[in-house]
C-alpha cells in the first residue's frame, strides 16, 4: 500500500470554506482520477500553531505506478483549482509513503 500524504497549513479565514471544499469537491475529484482507492482527512492536534491549523489529506493506492501517473497527469490541474479558489492563503507539503506493516 502507498499513501500520498499532503499536509496543508491554512490561514484561519479560509478554514471552514476549505474543509467543505475538500470534503465535497477536491478529495472526490482526486478519487475520480482512478489512481487512488480511498482517502482520509485529518486535523493536526499537536503541536498547536497560533498562525493557523494544519490538516493532512491522505490518499491510498496499491501501486507506485498509479501514484506517479496521478502526479504527472492529474495533479497539476487539481492543484491549480485550489490555488484559483484560495490563492496564497495556504501552503501544502507533499510526500509519498510505502506501508511496510500493519495490524
**SSE class:** alpha+beta
Strand order of the largest sheet: 2-3-1-4
What portion of residues belong to β-strands?
25-35%
Specify the number of helices: 2
What general form does the structure show? globular
Any idea how many domains? 1
CATH class: Alpha Beta
Average pLDDT level: 95
- Return the CATH topology: Alpha-Beta Plaits
- Radius of gyration (CA) equals 14 Å
Ranges with pLDDT <50 over ≥5 residues?
A: none
Helix content: 25-40%
N- and C-termini, Cα separation: 13 Å
Quaternary structure classification: single chain
Instruction: Tell me which CATH architecture applies here.
Output: 2-Layer Sandwich
The number of distinct β-strands equals 4
Largest sheet: 4 strands, antiparallel
Order of helices and strands: EHEEHE
Notes on the protein architecture:
Helices cover 40% and strands 31% of the residues. With 103 residues, the protein is of the alpha+beta class. It has a single domain, classed as Alpha-Beta Plaits, CATH 3.30.70. Strands 2-3-1-4 form a four-stranded antiparallel β-sheet, with helices on one face.
Give the topology, please.
Elements: E1 2-10, H1 15-32, E2 38-43, E3 54-61, H2 64-86, E4 90-98
Antiparallel strand pairs: 1-3, 1-4, 2-3
Helix pairs in contact: 1-2
Which characteristics define this entry?
4-stranded antiparallel β-sheet, 4 strands, 2 helices, 103 residues, Alpha-Beta Plaits, globular, alpha+beta
Sum this structure up briefly.
With 103 residues, the protein is of the alpha+beta class. It has helices at residues 15-32, 64-86; strands at 2-10, 38-43, 54-61, 90-98.
Amino acid at each position: 500500500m502507498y499513501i500520498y500524504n499532503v499536509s496543508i497549513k491554512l490561514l484561519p479565514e479560509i478554514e471552514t470554506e476549505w474543509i467543505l471544499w475538500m470534503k465535497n469537491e477536491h478529495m472526490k475529484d482526486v478519487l475520480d482520477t482512478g489512481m487512488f482507492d480511498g482517502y482520509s482527512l485529518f486535523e493536526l492536534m499537536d503541536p498547536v500553531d497560533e498562525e493557523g491549523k494544519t490538516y493532512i489529506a491522505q490518499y491510498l493506492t496499491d501501486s507506485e505506478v498509479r501514484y506517479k501517473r496521478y502526479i504527472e497527469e492529474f495533479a497539476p490541474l487539481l492543484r491549480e483549482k485550489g490555488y484559483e479558489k484560495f490563492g496564497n492563503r495556504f501552503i501544502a507539503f507533499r510526500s509519498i509513503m510505502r506501508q511496510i506493516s500493519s495490524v
